[in-house]
Write a structure and sequence with these properties.
Elements lengths: L16 H8 L5 H7 L5 E2 H7 L5 H13 L3 E6 L5 E6 L1 H5 L1 H27 L1
Antiparallel strand pairs: 1-3, 2-3
Length: 123
């Protein structure tokens, strides 16, 4: 006989805000694209250069998704050949502190893993 199921004391309200914001960031590379747009508007090729491991296909899909969610705007430039630049909307900018906090935890994890790796190699 298994243990009885306990009820959660932290029941999410309908339309849980945490689930909603994580939905905005879903998809591979979405946080990276948002982070790269935090400084200034960037063109597609510049973003490919900023995020070298992302494919053109995935970057294009991410930009379209982020634009459809209201996080990124696309502005067509009057150039030959035609080009567009992408920038964060005010809503997209509101995600930057959360992404920065995640990056901070990532930096700590990397430092711990490097320290652990040095300790293991020293043995």
């Amino acid at each position: 006989m298994g243990l009885p199921l306990r009820k959660s004391k932290v029941a999410p309200p309908p339309g849980c805000p945490l689930s909603e914001v994580l939905t905005l960031l879903r998809g591979a590379w979405a946080p990276n694209v948002i982070w790269q747009l935090s400084g200034e508007p960037r063109r597609f090729g510049e973003l490919r250069h900023d995020i070298p491991r992302i494919s053109a296909r995935v970057l294009s899909a991410r930009l379209r998704e982020l634009e459809s969610r209201g996080l990124v705007t696309r502005r067509v430039l009057d150039t030959s050949p035609p080009s567009a630049e992408y920038s964060l909307t005010p809503l997209g900018r509101e995600l930057l502190p959360a992404i920065d906090a995640l990056a901070g935890v990532g930096r700590k994890l990397i430092a711990e893993w490097e320290t652990y790796g040095r300790l293991v190699r020293a043995r």
